[in-house]
Amino acid sequence: MGTVAVQGLCKSFGKVQALDGVTLDVPDGAFFVVLGPSGAGKTTTLRAIAGLDRLDAGTVHLDGRDATTDAPAARDLAMVFQNYALYPRHTVYENIASPLRARRRPSGEISAAVERMSDLLHIGRLLNRRPAQLSGGEMQRVALARALVRSPRAFLMDEPLTNLDLKLRVEMRTELTRIHRSLGATFVYVTNDQVEALSMADQVAVLKEGKVQQVGTPTEVYERPANQWVAGFVGSPPISLLPCHAEGDRLVGAAGWTLPRPRWAAAQDGRPLLLGLRAEDLSVERRASATLPGELYGLEPLGDRTVVDVRVGAQILKVKSRPTITGTPGEQVLVAVDLDRAHLFDAGTGLSLS
Ligand code: ATP
């Protein structure tokens, strides 16, 4: 079991109210993301769950039991931070094994656990190296393996991918969702990066100024934002918000335009409104001039779109698609290509020929 429930968390630092009545229910085995801008209270929420700060008000329940006054060590939670140092003189193997050694686990169990983690994180070939002989991304993987080698009640992760370059971050997003699925453990993951939140979470809680704005699946938060602030915060490029009002069967824009009034627009005539339009709901032109046959390899839901990986020969093509697209790995698919927009490069020199 690994449920985490917080109720009415309040915490002030002097005049700053970091948490103002935060209530969250994290189901067992969830990948639960707390998303919000800098200063929203995300880290303070995690620290409250871990028992690292005294709360002004509120309760923390772990697996249904009131743990509000439990010492951090008694909560059986693992916290993963942005910066986690490895032991420089130990090998990768010893680094990963150290949390289990500290708990005096039998050596057979330790080697099996290290092997499983190094397989999951693809670092098996690094086990005999020392941290100084690793790249930044490899170090981060080793640090994650060390955190994940234990089986605590839940993992609390505070922006663990922030220090990676974009390419590695994208890779690690996929790795983390895969690891989460394979461990079946509860993750509470804090980030200010909406792409991270939407692509990895089962459930997202959107936090602003210490208050929860909305909790829902990535699709719910994106498709049915609870308020204008959530609509503006989630989605890239940001949603356009056009001032307007209803007038009979029309919506009339402050800029002078009119549109047929949608049936669901139940607002009173004359009341000031904002019409929210997302980029993908507006289109200028759409056409395709050729297709490539391939095999569906994977889906990466990103909220406003799903990136579909399609294997064409030995290559993986990334294809931007509708968020509602579904498919099964192995399925035969066609990729439409707009050749007018394609590029050509010299394979020897790498220079563009188009
Ligand atoms: P970030 O994404 O920048 O890490 P966050 O959402 O995690 O932000 P918190 O670190 O939880 O935000 O901070 C919430 C608010 O509480 C901020 O205004 C912050 O300045 C304040 N705060 C947090 N910790 C302390 C502290 N120890 N002393 C004083 N103020 C604090």
Summarize the structure in words.
By secondary structure, the protein is an alpha+beta fold. Helix 2 (92-102) crosses helix 3. The strands form four sheets. It has a six-stranded mixed sheet with strand order 6-7-8-3-9-10, with helices on both faces. 31% of the residues are buried. Helix content is 24%, strand content 32%. The protein has eight helices and 18 strands. Mean pLDDT is 85; it is low at 282-289. The structure holds adenosine-5'-triphosphate (ATP). Adenosine-5'-triphosphate binds at residues 13, 16, 18, 36, 38-44, 192. One of its GO terms (molecular function) is ATP binding. Keywords: ATP-binding, Cell membrane, Membrane, Nucleotide-binding, Translocase, Transport. This is ABC transporter ATP-binding protein.
